[in-house]
Amino acid sequence: MVPISPVPLLFLLVLALQSIWSSASQELKVQSSPQPEISRLHHPTWSLGLQLYRSLRIDGSQTNTFISPLLLANSLLALEGGAKGSTAGQFHDLLRITKNDKAVGEALTKALKSVREANGTSYALRSSSALFSKQAPKLEKSFLEKLQTHFGLQHVALEDAQKHDMEKLQSWAKSGMDGEETVDLELALETKPGAMILANALNFKGFWDRGFYHENQDLRSFLGTKYTKVPMMHRSGVYRHYEDIENMVQVLELGLWEGKASMVLILPFHVENLARLDRLLTLDRVEKWLGKLNSTSMALSLPRTKISSTVNLQVIV
């Protein structure tokens, strides 16, 4: 097998997330189904995700920052099998595994299978992963077949002319996300001869277990980079909630349809930017928050959103 070690490896994540309205029939069906407890955060994707998120937010970026640590970890594990020397060591450091550690691979495979099997229940998910290469050393056919069959990682060759690289990447991402448009990268990728680009694209649409209804929507002021009027959805009910007085944040878990997934919101006590909250996101603290969630009756108001994000991890990783 040709080693990956002499080849520069770049990373690109393209994601689109939506919050939507749920119908009344969905809500009635799931009322008797208890929401599962969130498990302890020992899965390798949690540490990878939080590490990358903090690195991306360290400069106080005002752009949307969404990543899928599960897709990224799966792709990194796929390439780790063909890496040698210092490159293999970098993969091990990112995934926090040792050279012959099979437990992480089994955990990632199980998690990815679970996510795909739940597709169409709690959420609608379209995802795609690919390894783009440009004048790179020829990889063995058996290795590329393993990437595809075991990890769902396609291999796509880029043309010699750099001006078409981003067009090809964005076309691939749009196809992988079922036609969703992507946002442009703030910093262009450097696709020099011999480069490889690891790319993941994800389109996620969650279905609430307790729906927000059209008749309850209105326009209210919402602070993004500035105050704007946005459509807000409202609902009262019982939700899992924790109030961290010391760090001045509320943690709220919203269950998704059929109880196979949930969304966790971290809300500051006062209006502020995300810099302080970003610094609070450590593995130990998030685990503590999730372990202290209790069922509480409350009224919710959330913006109805469709958010897109394109993240370049070339410098971070």
TrEMBL record:
Domain of life of the source: Eukaryota
GO biological process: collagen fibril organization
Classification via SMART domains: SERPIN
Ranges where the Serpin domain occurs: 50-315
Signal sequence bounds: 1-25
The keyword rRNA-binding appears for this protein: no
UniProt GO molecular function: serine-type endopeptidase inhibitor activity
Family of this protein: Belongs to the serpin family.
Entry protein name: Serpin H1-like protein
Organism: Labeo rohita
